[in-house]
């Protein structure tokens, strides 16, 4: 049962959790301000202007993580079932954009969630949650979800003012309270309520959600939020590395003693003359390989922890078995996200159909990007071919699924060429037939 005491207990610390999600979103969208707290050693005022300039040119790798996951996961969004009367409505909806928004929010929050509701203009909409959300768990069973919280900071306030919405799944009631200085000050007795309506006869619109990332105590934690320490560390390395490179990338003139009058000009045709016991020489730039190697190690760690594909780092991609493992891990991650996203979209579309009084016998499916999957699958086929586990004709038939516009002859040439790259020698078709 959802009580005021239980809600207050679970809203403790919500502001900090919401700030963590907001931080992940800031790094995932690369909308950064100057962040001296992530730079060491401490910046003195003399260097501040220079470091700020370099920081503006540094990029958050979090944005690359987000775009790569979206590229791999959102191949296509389709629906099927017997709800013919719903087809025109779904064609009018932009399910691809809805899936995109749900996925990106989930990478920051650890939740794919949304709700079907009536907008202020009176239109029925499927709306992804913005702000901060989290499930409310039963006091005697932390695995049982009995409600949902939706919280956000009100715009245009000099001091923080929260709007808190609490969905009670048992009574199908939505409680809302505005203008709270802290989330845990929510009070059911003072909140406004939304009761059952003609459109929603079972009560207030019900949030639909799937948790895709977990932190402590089963609290939702987004993929980008988990990676924040590495993302921030890489950004700091970019700034520090650019600073070192800019300061030492060219020889610098050093002079001992005073320079004689009239020879301050610096040019190839001018001789520097110094006073007695003086000297002049060039300081050669230091080696920056260690700085670059240190930064590269961070990116390799980030690629592995983020389940990114082998090509995530461009020319520094792994080779051989490590490349195949990285790609397989990324594809599995995208399939997991696509499956959870399909579940939430299906529930939302069915709620939408019910609110319109239409048939809800429909399912929505999100399919991962086949272009990326294609290369990994072809690599797998060629590996099986190398091991003698499939014959050449079967490899051609399987590959033709991914390149339907090719003739069998073109596919045969492609497979032979790819296999030759691995064996580092030419393979004749006659050899292939004898395997």
The major beta sheet can be summarized as: 5 strands, antiparallel
Poorly predicted runs: 425-435
Number of strands: 12
> Given the structure, what is the number of helices?
13
What is the share of helical residues?
Answer: 40-55%
How much of the sequence lies in strands comes to 15-25%
> Helix-strand pattern, N to C?
HHHHEHHEEEEEEEEHEEHHEHHHH
- Distance separating the two termini: 67 Å
Task: Please state the CA-atom Rg, rounded to the nearest Å.
Answer: 30 Å
Structural class of the secondary structure composition?
alpha+beta
* Neighbour order of strands in the largest sheet: 4-5-6-7-8
Mean pLDDT: 84
| Shape designation | flat
Outline the structure in words.
- There is one protein chain.
- This protein is an alpha+beta fold and 435 residues long.
- Among the domains are: 4-223, no CATH class; 369-433, no CATH class.
- It has 13 helices and twelve strands.
- The strands form four sheets. The protein has a five-stranded antiparallel sheet with strand order 4-5-6-7-8.
- β2 and β3 form a beta hairpin.
- The termini are far apart.
- The model is unreliable at 425-435 (pLDDT under 50).
Summarize the structure.
A hairpin with a 2-residue loop joins strand 4 and strand 5 (141-153).
Features:
single chain; 13 helices; 435 residues; 5-stranded antiparallel β-sheet; 3-stranded antiparallel β-sheet; alpha+beta; 45% helix; flat
